[in-house]
Amino acid sequence: MERNESLTKPKAMIFDMDGTLFQTETLLLPAYHKLFDILREEGLHKGETPKEELMLGCLGMLLEDIWKIVLPDGSPEAHRRADELLLQLELEGLKEPDAVLYPGVEETLQELKRRGVRLFVASNGLEHYVKGIADARNIMPLFEELYSAGQHGTASKVDLVALLLKNHGIERAWMVGDRSSDVEAGKKNGQTVIGCQYAGFGNDQELKGSDAIITSFPELLNLYENAVE
């Protein structure tokens, strides 16, 4: 890869979790189908399970917004129960070996940390979910801190990243993620955005505005090596 004069080496990198570090569908889809089986058993949902693509297309959103799309006719009780079940079923699913990180994630993070880059997570997910993935897949020690909308009660990823930057005194960071919410969070906070184009959950315009695009996670190290000081 050629030296990229448009990128400056960051002091920190902030990562989205789903679709960036973690192969979400390996955990989400089994839990998703079990969730709707239980909702039907409990009388909180009638009919078929909504298409998987509908749920996958909502990744990166806050849970309350996800259920408005996936369960638009569901009652507030059904939405609350879906929240509870999804977290419970996903935490159980993390015990299974099939729920995995993307190839090269652990090794790339280890190398970035070795080079002195401060590593963080900023996710719109629930606190126990985000930390549960990092813990179960043994990458928790690589991060300085993991921020989640569930923990901090932020209304958007823009607010969550702003809080992270302020709390840790970070002025120059790369926001690394796969959704438009990641691009927005980076740009509105004056940071460089690296778009991840390997999960396939979004549309063609999802990463518009990114400063660079990677098609596999280890490419991030190449970008870092070729960025200017």
TrEMBL record:
Name the InterPro entries for this protein. Answer: HAD-like_hydrolase_sf, HAD-like_sf, HAD_sf, PGP-like_dom2
Give the GO biological process terms.
DNA repair
Query: In the record, what terms sit under GO molecular function?
Result: phosphoglycolate phosphatase activity
One GO CC term, this protein: cytosol
The organism's place on the tree of life at top rank? Bacteria
What's the protein here called? Answer: Phosphoglycolate phosphatase, HAD superfamily
Q: Please tell me the species this chain comes from.
A: Paenibacillus uliginis N3/975
